[in-house]
Write a structure and sequence with these properties.
By secondary structure, this protein is of the alpha/beta class. The chain is built from 12 helices and 10 strands.
Length: 296
């Protein structure tokens, strides 16, 4: 396998394209918005520059990596020669289903169709295609060039051969693949999101403040980042969407999102991408400043 297409040029999409291109794959990066594609190439270039500065990549390797990425604004054009497609669009079920209908129509019949979804059912996605045995989840972690895990999710009809192939490709990317079955939230978010939700409830109920909650988890549980800071980085809207998938899919009230999270999303306080969540990010991402609303 040498030709890969990546759908979506946002944070996850450009990271996935970066990793595949760095490991020798020809990558078609696809987005309906050309300025977004241009921004993605700039981001990939900056991330490669960091690797060069650290001595983990040569200038020649950087140039070769960028040279392997071609951008497209049309799915039909971008996936024409793809052997593997990795969808990394917004975590919206209707959007993903439409993308997979289009992929099924335009990608070569033998191409594997993967989704980077963090919570949406692979079985549901596969059901809108005529190749359910070739549909699988490849849940990369953010930032993709740094994080080693790929959660490989088998849909109900995903074949053993396709699963084995994706596990091997993940290893070729220098990742550690972990196979899981297709149930709401898979493993990563089924465990992570209730923890984040409980941290928000602890703030909501006045148990402790933002900084105190994160400090307990960092120093007491050896987490590199506190759950509220992590929620800001993930995006509070994404956290809310995943909790709703868990709540709807499992029918257990323990997954019900905290009212504070719901209100913050409705108010547009989405975390680092909006400039404010539990922390204020107007000073950049290096300095932790608790949002004014949550200061004592």
């Amino acid at each position: 396998m040498t030709n890969v297409a990546v759908i979506g040029s946002g944070t996850m999409g450009n990271g996935i394209a970066h990793v595949f291109a760095q490991h020798g794959f020809a990558v078609a990066l696809i987005d309906i918005n050309q300025p977004a594609l241009d921004k993605a190439l700039g981001t990939i270039g900056k991330n490669l520059d960091r690797q060069v500065a650290k001595g983990s990549l040569s200038e020649a390797d950087k140039s070769a990596t960028l040279g392997r990425i071609t951008t497209f604004t049309s799915i039909a054009d971008g996936v024409r020669e793809a052997e593997l497609v990795v969808e990394a669009a917004t975590e919206n079920v209707d959007l993903k289903l439409q993308i997979f209908r289009d992929l099924d129509q335009h990608a070569p019949q033998e191409a594997i169709l993967a989704s980077n979804t963090s919570s949406i059912s692979i079985t549901k996605i596969a059901a809108v295609t005529k190749r359910a045995d070739k549909v699988i989840g490849m849940h990369f972690m953010n930032p993709v060039p740094v994080m080693k895990l790929v959660e490989v999710i088998r849909g109900y009809a995903t074949s053993n051969a396709v699963t084995a192939h994706i596990m091997e490709i993940s290893r070729q990317l220098g990742k550690t693949p972990t196979e899981v079955n297709d149930y709401p939230g898979f493993v990563a978010n089924r465990i992570l999101m209730p923890m984040i939700n409980e941290a928000i409830y602890s703030l909501f109920e006045g148990v402790a403040g933002v900084e105190e909650i994160d400090t307990v988890m960092k120093l007491g549980m050896a987490h590199p980042m506190g759950p509220l800071q992590l929620a800001d980085f993930i995006g509070l809207d994404v956290c809310l969407a995943i909790l709703r998938v868990l709540h709807d899919g499992l029918g257990n009230p323990k997954y019900a999102p905290c009212p504070l999270l719901v209100n913050m999303v409705m108010a547009g306080r989405l975390g680092s991408k909006s400039g404010e969540g539990f922390y204020s990010w107007t000073h950049g991402t290096k300095e932790l400043v608790v949002a004014e609303r949550f200061r004592k």
